Structure formats: structure tokens, C-alpha cells
Amino acid sequence: MIRFFISCYSSRNGGVRQNDCGFFGLGLSVCIGLLAVTLLTFIPQPGNAQDLSDDVVSERFWAQIRTDSPRYTMETFLNASDALQNSVAAYLEDPSLELQAEIALLSDLLVDLLDLENVAAATRRETGIRTFEYLMDIFGRIGPPDVTMFPDLDMASGAGSDSFRIPNTPLRIERVTNGPRKGEFLFAEETVRVAPRFFEAVRHLPLTSPLGIESWASFGPQQTGPLVPPAFVEAMPPLLTELWFETPAWKVIFETALLLVFALFLFGIHHAVRSIIKTGRVSVLVARTLAPVLLVYCASSVLPFIALQIHLSGSFARFYDVVLTIAIYGGSAFIFWLLTRILVETIILSPRIRDESLDADLLRLGGATLGLFGSVCILALGGHAIGLPVLSVVAGLGIGGLAVALAVRPTFENLIGGVILFVDRPVRVGDFCSVGDQKGTVEGIGIRSTKLRAVDRTVISIPNAQFADMQIINWAQCDQMLINETIGLRYDTAEDQLRYLLVALRRMLHAHPRIDAETVRVRFAGFGDSSLKVSIRIYAQTREWNDFFAIREDVDLRILKAVHEAGTDFAFPSQTVYMAKDQGRDEERSTRAEDAVKRWRDTGQLPFPRLSRQEQERLKGTLDYPPYGSADADDIVEPEAAEPLSDPCQPLPELAEEDSEVETSSTSERTRHQGS
């Protein structure tokens, strides 16, 4: 049937001409510019045509629309066909928008009498139009069937009456067994395939029609809408009126060129916006929505309206519908992706969230995941609309799910690693940290990896899964920074000279305003190969590296001064060779030591492998510590508790009663052995 009779105004089958995507694009276009408003002003609106269609139905209700039996379905088809022929005749005499809306409504009705459930939604309308054109050609040649021979409502409710073959034809009317139209009698699903073949078989017969045409199938493609001047069509050379893909050549050329021009226009708009707006994440994202919004709006409203006036038909019209459907769903998916990112970036603009913080990165990660999932769902709906077996593909993923899971395992590991970093928060953006043998400042935590700016200003990218499993040292979380030094003094440093130096170092560190006095520890740490070792461990009260190095520099200079003021100096690796005559051992002291050991052995008091308990008690606390002359020598000194190894408020674990008995028994046993 004539393609211009079909408008995008209403469709119970949910074709590409519906306004389910148009309102979405229209709303966004108002937010970003006046271009869409201008287009809306000058293009006739679908709502106006629908209002006219409603008036026509209310004033001229020409048939009782029923599909609850084969007889009612056939009567409805014949009455609608006659009404359509009359409307087309009136339209050819005086084209008007009202008649066009009436023809569109009648076309909708005829399409609804066909079972097109298994036809792709994007091409369902054009397929239905072509099919009922063939049906009108068939019944216009062999004559309308006698509807009294068709089963009525009572007969249709009986057993075995779910299918009825129209007499003298291979066409059938069958009861729909599933779906939203279950129980209705419609032209069978195979009518789309059978009708064209049967039409070729009866094509030699003359067509009975008030329009005086040879065939509905050849009459429709040459027609145009009311906005195309008839003189323009009549002046078209015969070469351009030949059918290409069941559509006149000039229409194919015009619509193809229109699509190319429209694509170039959107491409130019996209690049112009990107070149003008380069700063501000939200501003850039909002500007990028202009091109897809125009794409969705034009593909759902402007281009279908132009195609309606040009009147496309046949296989080219189906191809055109598929292209527009892809544009609508593809643009909608891109818009959803951008809107998700705009929402996330708007939330990040809150003063409570730093732009480069981990919270911001994880919000972007969540937004990207949501946007990707929503876009894939929209594209899946688009694929289903053009007839792709999306549900079969999804079901097939269960079989190939293992292979897919293995293929994307590293990606999911990194994604989960990013979530772990968000929950555990070992580092934040801007923190200086050590990860393995790498050191640097965290610059960003993305979907796949975490980026560190190393000390040498290079960027280190570490996968999130690996980063979350590594030992991480977060220097930014230090409350104080450790200065740990060990100095070596000459071996000729006197004992009291060393004590003087230790006191001078402790006084200097306690007096330093940037050193934590509670944690000062300066001790003589032992004997090195060529030096007396002094351990200095203190904490600088800072969290900044530059400040830390300045404090450590000042402390080291003061240590240098204190060593020199003590009259000693730093040692360096050396060996001293003493040239002297060997005097041998001291015979007197050697004899005294040997006699003492013999006496211990004879009296049974040899202190090996350990001292006896009585001697331990006798010797306990007899050394002078703190040493003689110390300010603390006459006081009871409490141990330093600035850095306890455990919580001092917690009591030490007591021995269980059984353990105490075992210890007492062991002590008694040792006493008996010593007595013996």
C-alpha cells in the first residue's frame, strides 16, 4: 500500500515511528539549545494528525472492528479495504492532512489484522503494508469471498476451529495462541510469505477497483505526500522512476543523500562543540550531548516525516527503518552514558568531595559501570527491534559463560581491586606511599589501575588487583616521622667522656621544639669493629617531607657540634698495630682464679650451668645502677614508659593453677637434687 499513507503518529505494533524515543530527545534538546524548538515550530506535529484521526473515527465509523471469529476478521478486512479505496480516491482529487490521517488510521487497522508477532519491530509496519497490498490485489482479482461460509462466533468456539482456509486461496485465518493478542483470529503468520506468491499466480486477472489502477503493489511506490508538488513528480524522467529495491530510483537517491548530509552535519556539530568547549568536565559532557540529542530527535521525528512525504516503500523502506532504529537506540545509549557521567561529575562538584580523591574516582567508576550497563541494555533493545536474536545470544552466553569469564577475569579482578581500595582506603589520591620497591604520589585510582607519580616524575601504572595485594606503606598517614641514626666514636673515647656526650645529646633533643620529648632515646649501643656505637632514635613532629629533611639536618648538625665539644671525634674503619714485647699472662691472678674454681668444685658449689638460687638472691640489686654520682642514684627509678611493648593498663597473664603446681613441683625437685 502507499507508503505515504503510513505516518509515525500511532502504532499498536510499536514500530520505529512511535514517539517512545522522540519525547526523550525533545526534552534534552530544550535543555541545550533552541534548534529543536525551531524544528518543532515548523514541522507538523504527530499529535495534530492523531486528533484529526480521532475526529474521523467518531464521525465516520464505517465498520464494527472485531477479530473474535474468522467471519468477523474477514468482514473487518473487506470493509476497511473499501473504506481505504474511497479515502485514497478522495485524497488523489484533493490532498489534505485530514485525509492523510484517515488513510494512516485505516492502514493501521489493516496491519493489525495480520499476525506479525515474529517480524522485527523496526520493519513490522512496512511488512504489514506490503502484505495487505497483495491481499487487496488478490481479492480485487478473484473477488471477495462469501463471508457466510466463514465460521462465526459460535462455530469458532468449537473444537478444531483454530484455523480456517479462505476458499479458493492458500490463505488462512488462525487463532493466536500466545502473546498479547491471544484468542484473536488473524491472517496467519505465513501470509507474509504466501500472499506475494499467490498474487503472481493471479496477476493476469483484471483488478476491480474504483481507482482504475492495474495493481496496488505498483501504484503505491510512485505516490508522494501532500507536501511534494505533483508537477515535480510528473516532470521526473522515466529513468528515475524505475524501481530500485521496490522504490523509485529518485527517492532512493534523495533519501541516501539526505542521510549523508545529516551525518556530516552531526559530525560537524560534534567537532565544533568539542573545539569550543574544552574546560570544565560537566560543561564538556553537557556540550557533547548536543549531537546525540539531535540524532535521536531527527531520527524519530524529522527524518520519518520527510520519508512520509517522499513515500518510501518495499525493501528500501524496511532498510531505511532499520537505519533510523539503529540511530535512535545508538544515540539513546550514548545519551544515557553521558547523562550518567554528568550526574556523577555534578555530585563530585560538592565541596565535601575532592576532585582527585578516592571517593571521586570510585564515583566515576560506579557511574561508568552503570552507564555501560544501561547503554548495553538500550543497545540490546535496539537489536531486538531490528530483528537480531538478542535473547538467543543472551541464552547462549550461559554456554560460553565460562570462556567469557576466563577471558575477562583480569578485568574483573582489577575492578574488584578498585572496590577493595575504596572500602579499605589504604591510600587516597595525593598520598605519598611505598608499594613494593616503588615510591610515589597517588595520582588516580581508575577502573583498571592505580597511577603513581614517582620521585623521578615518571608515572607508574599498577593494576588494581596487584596493588590491593601488595604491602602498602602510606607515608601520608604518619603522625610523626622517625629519625634513626647510629654514630660511631673513636675507641680512645674515655668512659666519662662518653657519658658527657650522651648527656649533651639528650639535653639537646629534649630542648628541640620539633622533637617529641616523650620518645627521645639516646643510648650507648655497643662495640663496633672500629667504633663505639651510639644509637639515636627520635620522632620529628611533622608530616611533610621537606620539613622532615630540614629538621633532620638541624639535628645532625647539633650532633656534630656535641661530639666535638665532648673532645672526641667520629671513627672510621681502621686498624691499629701495636708493637710490644709479649709479657705473658699474670701468674698470680691465674693461680688465684684456678684455686677459686677448685674450691667451688670441692665444696659442691660450682656455678655451672647456672648460679644457685641462694647466690642469685644474695647478688640481686648489689650493683650501683644508676651509677655512682648520677642524679637518680639515691631514688627508685621507674622504667621509661613512652613506648611500651603492650598496653600498660592490661595486667600480665597469670599462671593457671595447674601451671603453678607444676612450677612448684619442679622447684622442689631441683632443691632436692641440689641438697643431695
Written overview of the protein:
With 676 residues, the protein is α+β, with helices and mostly antiparallel strands. Helix content is 54%, strand content 10%. It has helices at 22-32, 35-42, 46-59, 70-93, 97-112, 121-142, 153-156, 191-202, 216-219, 230-234, 238-241, 249-276, 281-288, 290-310, 314-348, 358-385, 390-399, 401-424, 464-469, 495-511, 545-565, 587-602, 613-619, 657-675, and strands spanning 163-165, 172-175, 185-187, 243-244, 247-248, 432-435, 438-445, 449-454, 459-463, 472-474, 481-489, 521-527, 532-540. The strands form four sheets. Strands 9-8-7-6-10 form a five-stranded antiparallel beta sheet. A hairpin with a 2-residue loop joins strand 4 and strand 5. Helix 15 runs antiparallel to helix 16. The protein is elongated, with a radius of gyration of 48 Å. The N and C termini lie far apart (126 Å). Mean pLDDT is 78; it is low at 1-63 and 655-676.
Secondary-structure map with pairings?
Layout: H1 22-32, H2 35-42, H3 46-59, H4 70-93, H5 97-112, H6 121-142, H7 153-156, E1 163-165, E2 172-175, E3 185-187, H8 191-202, H9 216-219, H10 230-234, H11 238-241, E4 243-244, E5 247-248, H12 249-276, H13 281-288, H14 290-310, H15 314-348, H16 358-385, H17 390-399, H18 401-424, E6 432-435, E7 438-445, E8 449-454, E9 459-463, H19 464-469, E10 472-474, E11 481-489, H20 495-511, E12 521-527, E13 532-540, H21 545-565, H22 587-602, H23 613-619, H24 657-675
Antiparallel strand pairs: 1-2, 2-3, 4-5, 6-7, 6-10, 7-8, 8-9, 11-13, 12-13
